[in-house]
Design brief:
Distance between the termini: 54 Å
Structural class: alpha+beta
Helix content: 25-40%
Strand order of the largest sheet: 3-16-13-15-14-17
Strand content: 25-35%
Largest sheet: 6 strands, mixed, barrel
Order of helices and strands: HEHHHEEEEEEEHEHEEHHHEEEEEHE
Shape: globular
Radius of gyration: 25 Å
């Protein structure tokens, strides 16, 4: 090959390499919030009833206002006692930037479920009518900070219990707590009528209990035994007892009532166990992990490793089917104010429906795909 032909060949190969490099696919985004987008990319943003989220914003401000940029954002929010939807849209456009949240392998959507505050029947004293205890946090439950010994686990905590010889061991499982030894005896807050209702009280994380006198007391999440949450619906689906699409709260209740001989084994397959505290008369709504009262239809539970607690989020999903079978598109400005044992991953969220029969019905059926857009304070994008 002549020198001239060799030079031409090298030039062509070099140009081809540059072309192919320019056509290489863009690396997928890491799990979590991606790059900022335009507000026009948010489905339903211009039609949303954003003013309904204002109280939830002020509740987040009650815990975030001590640090910038939230201090100035919350100070300005206080200037609007009763804003319109248009004013709220303008407020967020000026102070936040929307960032789509991606799951692992760049999945843009994730599972959106629902939760609510159930009403149980119970008593402050045990009796044959009310045999199932609800416990407060036990005195031997300890939290161990792993950071001092394992720097790569800074901020991670595990739960366990102290033995008589000073060792920390994993805390009792559900099966052990419910067993004949009764290791938590003496720590009861009250007793409830239904073991099924009590199990779902653990799943929901808060509830109200109507006493024989007619008085109602409320329970909030206080702690958990540190054991991994296991879905009994997934177990039943894997056994072939029901299809995955059928796993809803009403179907699970129906199965547990129809199979009393298998009930204890199935419930104990979820080793996670929740402890509660009696709620003060105020606030009337459950308090989320953030420390503020949850706002029905405006609060969500998230994985705080990916979505910071207190943050506004634009949620786009569908509600369960209506009575006439019509699916409903659903876009809503919400706030990340709670967490949950089953809420893990960047695009996973649990929507708080509130109290009452409608909330129970919707929460029990809610199992839809949806997208999250984290609204991040705009100063983070300023030069």
């Amino acid at each position: 090959m002549t020198e001239r032909l060799q030079l031409m060949r090298n030039a062509l190969l070099g140009g081809l390499s540059l072309f192919l490099a320019g056509c290489a696919p863009t690396p997928p985004p890491e799990p979590g919030p991606g790059a900022a987008r335009s507000w026009t990319d948010l489905p339903g943003w211009e039609e949303g009833t954003q003013a309904g989220a204002w109280r939830a914003l002020l509740r987040s401000c009650g815990h975030l206002a001590g640090e910038e940029p939230w201090a100035s954002i919350c100070e300005e929010a206080e200037l609007y006692p009763d804003p319109t939807d248009a004013q709220v849209r303008a407020f967020f456009r000026a102070r936040f930037r929307p960032r789509p949240v991606f799951g692992r392998q760049a999945q843009p959507s994730g599972l959106i479920t629902g939760y609510y505050e159930p009403l149980l029947h119970g008593s402050l004293e045990p009796s044959p009518a009310y045999p199932h205890p609800v416990y407060g946090p036990p005195g031997d439950l300890v939290h161990v900070d792993l950071g001092p010994r394992f720097p790569e686990l800074q901020g991670e905590r595990v739960r366990g219990r102290l033995t008589q010889d000073g060792r920390v061991v994993p805390y009792y499982t559900r099966a052990e707590i419910e067993g004949a030894d009764n290791p938590l005896a003496g720590g009861e807050l009250l007793w409830v009528r239904s073991v099924i209702d009590r199990f779902f009280l653990h799943i929901q994380g808060s509830g109200r209990v109507r006493l024989p006198s007619g008085e109602t007391v409320a329970l909030d999440y206080a702690d958990q035994n540190g054991r991994r949450y296991v879905s009994i619906g997934r177990i039943l689906a894997e056994r072939g007892e029901m299809d995955r699409e059928e796993v809803t709260l009403p179907r699970l209740r129906q199965w547990l009532r129809a199979n009393p001989d298998q009930r204890r084994e199935l419930l104990n397959a979820n080793p996670s166990y929740v402890f509660f505290r009696l709620r003060d008369r105020e606030p009337p709504l459950p308090v989320g992990t953030l420390g503020s009262p949850l706002t029905p239809w405006r609060s969500i539970a998230v994985d705080p490793d990916f979505v910071p607690l207190g943050s506004p989020v634009w949620l786009t999903t569908r509600l369960p089917e209506t009575s006439d079978g019509e699916e409903r598109r659903f876009h809503r400005l919400v706030f990340a104010q709670d967490t949950g044992g089953a809420i893990q991953g960047p695009t996973r969220a649990d929507f708080f429906f509130g109290q009452g029969r409608t909330a129970e019905r919707l929460a029990g059926q809610m199992k839809e795909q949806g997208r999250l857009y984290l609204l991040t304070p705009a100063w983070q994008f300023d030069d």
